[in-house]
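DNA repair protein RecO
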Amino acid sequence: MNALIADAAVDVPAALSTTAQDEAVATTSRRRAAPSSPKRSTRIPEKDTRVTAQPGFVLHSYPHRETSLIIDVFTRDYGRIALVAKGAKRPLSKLRGVLQTFQPLSLSWSGKSEIRTLIAAEWVGGLLPLEKSALLCGFYLNELLVKLVARDDPHPALFDHYVATLNQLAHQEPAPIVLRQFERALLKQTGVAGDFTICTSSRQPVDAGLTYVVDPERGPRIARDTDSWPRVSGKTLLDMEREDYSDVITQTQSKALMRFLLAHHLGGAPLNTRQILIDLMQL
């Protein structure tokens, strides 16, 4: 199993890179299709921006030309952004051993385009490395961020939750509980999941003794006989809102619910690491 996990971990960044490449191609196409500017323009030129010493993590990277990399990073104050790391593939590059996933970094960059230029990256430290199944869980977190967090959309609270989740995984805390907490935080912070304590059909507080379904666009409501969505108890919803997964039933029902909600908000796009985790760990 360890060998399988190691193989999967190597393949994950390549799978993730498709999203960033598609975005870059789409951006280039839009620029080529854009009409030429009139001779006289009242548009104020954008100033070149420079950011220094920003906390961040590499989510994934892919080759750019012969010696460079495009890295997708998640930063505390600027959200998810793309950076070109020039010369990072050269054997003597200082960046070669720094731009690793799950390592806290201090990042500096400049530029005003969709893909900025990395100026410096320094390892900060403070987190234990992820190993074995925890490493695959980390790639799962990164894939969720790449596919569900828009570029240039800051989420400082989600960034802090990501750091805490990596720390929990590194200390071998129960992966199913840690992942449920992060999934819930991700959907809340990106604005696609509401309050689990209010029934949307009655506008009354969720009753721990009743059975509900969660409408992905509206929130919890009383379950009907014809519903095909996952059924959860009111207690499970209240437990999830409190981040309390000590109850075995809450663990089971929240797993099914989060799979359903994530599938909806991903628009049917598959999660490569999720399927590997299901096969290996039955999360």
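thats it. The chain has a mean pLDDT of 84. Strands lie at 50-64, 68-75, 79-85, 105-110, 115-123, 211-215, 219-222, 232-233. bye
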